[in-house]
Amino acid sequence: MTGFAVVGLGMGRNRAKQVLETAGAELRVVVDLNEELAREVGEEMGSAYSTDLNEVLGRGDVDVVMVMTPSGLHAKIGVEAIKAGKHVITTKPMDVSTKACDELIDAADAAGVLVGVDYQSRYVDNNFRVAEALKQGLMGKPILGEVRFKWFRSQEYFEHGNGWRGTWAMDGGGSLANQGSHLIDLLLWFMGVPKTVYGETGIMNHEIETEDIGQAILNFTSGAKGGILGTTTFPESPYFSAEVHGSEGGVLVDSVLSGEIRVFGDGLEEKLQTIENPLANVVEDVVSALDRGTKLRVDGREGRRTVALLENIYRSSREGKVLDYSD
């Protein structure tokens, strides 16, 4: 049985429940600086709770630490956990800079432990099918991949929780880095590494350091084109979608969270249905990796790619020009 500790009980509350529901995993302890919240979640989940990370890292029954804190703390807490001999999974994005990601990856390599990133959209059945179909060439020559997310966030959202959201130091960006990182990860998974990047960002309707609207145009090494659009200024939240097509078919993923899709191309829908997704979530993925030696779907190096692309988009926006992609 693999023992888990979940650190940070905003997003972590949901992940603690996921641990409880996964065969081969056991929730040992939940951790939060807010003692009332830690107690509440611990009692709800039937686990121990703590406000002391060092005490938790010293527990021999904890094998994996899930870091669900603000983004700018992921590598710091992750490295502390690795030094204590634990495997580490962070929530998205991996951290706010590739420098921090590299520190976490290097620490894991040196210690011989796992490090990965919880991009839940990669475990949705139809998203997995699309990625495999592209990998197998079922859509022919790749032509275009796009992701779009139009959400609303109030000013109060950014001011809540000590105001870490929408800051460079703790959020690593705005609508692209926070709300958009799931879709940016999917685009890279579907289409591969970019060759050039052009980005534009702006603050249109919030008092924040970072962007509340961002766009990017990508050219991939495959020769395909790509596009990214994300904002937290839309009055509702209707779009969280991905679209990919090639010379022999395409797929519109109307919701990457639920996996609702529309398929175009002779026989493509039938081919997609033959592709089976063996994993439901990151907890299953970690248990499989530790018990059977399988590879994490999003290991540290894979998770780092989203942060690298974000850095390229932001630099392009600042410099106002197309950039050769740099990782």
Overview of the molecule:
By secondary structure, the chain is α/β, with parallel strands linked by helices. It has 2 domains: 2-120, Rossmann fold (3-Layer(aba) Sandwich), CATH 3.40.50; 124-277 and 299-324, Dihydrodipicolinate Reductase, domain 2, CATH 3.30.360.10. It is 36% helix and 26% strand. It has helices spanning 12-20, 35-45, 53-57, 74-83, 98-111, 125-135, 155-159, 168-171, 181-191, 268-273, 282-292, 300-319; strands at residues 2-7, 25-31, 48-50, 64-67, 87-91, 115-118, 142-150, 194-202, 213-220, 225-231, 239-246, 249-255, 260-264, 323-324. An 8-stranded mixed sheet has the order 13-12-11-7-10-9-8-14. Strand 4 (64-67), helix 4 (74-83) and strand 5 form a beta-alpha-beta unit. Helix 6 (125-135) packs parallel to helix 9 (181-191) and helix 9 crosses helix 12 (300-319). The longest helix has 20 residues, at 300-319. The two termini are 37 Å apart.
Approximate strand percentage: 25-35%
Instruction: Give the proportion of residues in helices.
Output: 25-40%
Poorly predicted regions are none
Largest sheet: 8 strands, mixed
Domains counted in the coordinates: how many?
2
CATH topology of the largest domain: Dihydrodipicolinate Reductase, domain 2
Provide the CATH top-level class of the largest domain. Answer: Alpha Beta
Task: Compute the average pLDDT.
Answer: 97
What is the CATH superfamily classification of the largest domain? Dihydrodipicolinate Reductase, domain 2
Element pattern in H and E: EHEHEHEHEHEHEHHHEEEEEEHHHE
Give the terminus-to-terminus CA distance. Answer: 37 Å
Q: Would you count the extended β strands for me?
A: 14
Number of helices: 12
Q: Judging from the principal axes of the Cα atoms, what is the shape?
A: globular
What structural category do the secondary elements indicate?
Answer: alpha/beta
How do the strands of the widest beta sheet line up side by side? Answer: 13-12-11-7-10-9-8-14
